[in-house]
Design a protein that fits this description.
- About 65% of the residues lie in helices and about 10% in strands.
- The chain has one domain: EF-hand (Recoverin, domain 1, Orthogonal Bundle), CATH 1.10.238.10.
- It is mainly alpha-helical and about 70 residues long.
- Strands 1-2 form a two-stranded antiparallel sheet.
- Helix 1 packs across helix 5.
- It binds calcium ion (2 copies).
Length: about 70
């Protein structure tokens, strides 16, 4: 259980890190322009952006990773 917890925490950390790395203006969200570095993100932007505010939040990014895993 402890190992699984640590593993999950590491994965969450990695997800947040990816968003931070791509988040050029550091507003905590990925805009279409920031997501354009990844072809996958660009092509799936509208699907990933669940609340259709034109930005991918860390929560939406995490959900995308889990739903496509
Ligand atoms: Ca941003
Ligand atoms: Ca959104």
């Amino acid at each position: 259980m402890l190992v699984q917890g640590l593993l999950a925490a590491t994965i969450v950390y990695a997800e947040q890190q990816v968003v931070d790395d791509l988040d050029i203006d550091q507003d905590g969200f990925l805009s279409l322009r920031e997501a354009a570095v990844s072809r996958y993100l660009l092509e799936n932007f509208n699907k990933i952006d669940l609340n259709e505010d034109g930005l991918i939040s860390k929560e939406e990014f995490s959900f995308m990773l889990r739903s496509h895993a």
